[in-house]
Write a structure and sequence with these properties.
single chain; 341 residues; alpha+beta; 60s Ribosomal Protein L30, Chain: A; Phosphoribosyl-aminoimidazole Synthetase, Chain A, domain 2; six-stranded mixed sheet; four-stranded mixed sheet; 10 helices; 23% strand; disordered N terminus; disordered C terminus; binds adenosine-5'-diphosphate; binds thiamine diphosphate; binds magnesium ion
Length: 341
């Protein structure tokens, strides 16, 4: 981390007042970040969807990633969870544990990134905490969204016979980590920067998610890996799923990378960092789902179906079952450590 001002010019309360309080504008209940709490107004017709995801330097992002993009990724991975429920975000809360010695320039660039996404997504920063840590940069964001009462898209609503859909393209995030960390000799420069961009700056599919309310039976976002995450829908819904590897939508960059090395397919299907929506819908809703995708400008692709049973079966191009070393990322695991891309 580099910056122009010495760490000694950083003051906790000045940071809150100068960098974070301006982001609370537009939400009176935030009390301009000058009190102990924020006050949320109740609304009888809606439920508040609340989610929190944390990010740790070296675990979720690269320690040298640009601070504005770290902030925006933190925002977007959380908005992605709201999108998956069909909720519309209105407020976020930030807990930031900065390593001692983090300079003001780094924090200013972090706050500028957060401000950009506060504006882009129409949310207010209504509270949080700013602390120091002897460990790596650790960030947590709580995101709050509104959804009509009883209409949130849950993991548990899938029905046998439902079509399984994903938005966008799968695998870019996992391959993007490699592109961002190591570069990728042999892959076109345009593909390398596309993949690194997909890793550093996900796109929460908020319009798609909101449009899926009433259409989708079940949904979640893909953060850990497509196969493991679909397994969560299966377990929550008491069903199994079958997906065809050849139907999983790929970007041109990921397709080009796969063409050079077929073994990357495991990272594509189970590497995570996708932040795409994974949802199920009845077969009769197929046209409506496709129309919605066109209306919001996000590709939607049918990749398989839900059935009685349990677990996720990935079918390869020959109709056989593809076996993967693991279905996705786990921070802690009884049988393995640091499973990832
Ligand atoms: N430390 C924790 N305390 C309370 N709830 C937690 C904690 N960690 C995870 N959860 C809850 O467990 C559920 C699954 O979490 P997670 O796998 O992180 O979901 P997602 O992939 O949607 O981010 C969520 O309801 C989440 O709020
Ligand atoms: C530097 C780095 N190494 C590895 C990864 C891969 N990775 C880390 S956590 C994770 C899963 C998503 O994070 P998590 O905290 O599990 O979010 P949630 O599932 O709760 O949304 C992945 C794919 C990464 N993103 N960055
Ligand atoms: Mg989470
Ligand atoms: Mg999440
Ligand atoms: Mg996870």
């Amino acid at each position: 981390m580099s910056g122009t001002l010495p760490a000694s010019s950083v003051d906790e309360f000045q940071i809150i007042a100068d960098l974070f309080a301006p982001l609370s504008r537009g939400y009176p209940g935030a009390l301009n970040l000058t009190d102990d709490v924020a006050l949320l107004a109740a609304d009888p017709d809606h439920e508040t969807a609340a989610t929190m995801d944390a990010m740790v330097a070296g675990v979720h992002f690269l320690p040298d990633d640009p601070p504005d993009l770290v902030a925006r990724k933190l925002m977007r991975v959380n908005l992605s969870d709201l999108a998956a429920k069909g909720a519309r975000p209105f407020a976020v809360m930030l807990a930031a544990a900065f390593p001692r010695g983090t300079d003001l320039d780094w924090m200013q660039r972090f706050a500028a990134g957060l401000a950009a996404d506060v504006a882009e997504f129409g949310v207010s920063l209504i509270g949080g905490d700013t602390v120091s840590t002897p460990g790596p940069l650790t960030l947590a964001l709580t995101a709050l969204g509104k959804v009509a009462k009883g209409r949130a898209i849950l993991r548990s609503g899938a029905q046998a016979g439902d079509v399984v859909w994903v938005s966008g393209s799968i695998g870019d995030g996992a391959l993007g980590l490699r592109a961002a960390r190591d570069g990728w000799p042999g892959l076109a420069a345009g593909h390398v920067s596309f993949l690194a961009g997909r890793y550093r700056l996900p796109s929460p599919r908020l319009s798609l998610g909101a449009g899926l309310v009433g259409l989708a039976h079940a949904g979640m976002d893909v953060s850990d890996g497509l196969v493991q995450d679909l397994g969560h829908i299966c377990r929550a819904s008491g069903l199994g799923a079958r997906i065809e590897a050849a139907k999983v939508p790929l970007s041109a960059a990921t397709a080009a990378a796969l063409a050079t090395d077929q073994t990357l397919l495991a990272s594509v299907l189970a590497g995570g960092d996708d932040y795409e929506l994974l949802f199920t819908a009845p077969a009769h809703a197929t046209e409506a789902v496709l129309n919605l995708g066109r209306r919001v400008g996000v590709a939607v692709t049918a990749i398989g179906s839900m059935a009685e049973g349990e677990g996720v079966r990935v079918v390869d191009a020959n109709g056989g079952t593809l076996s993967l070393p693991h279905g996705g990322w786990r921070h802690f695991s009884a049988t393995e450590t640091g499973a990832g891309a």
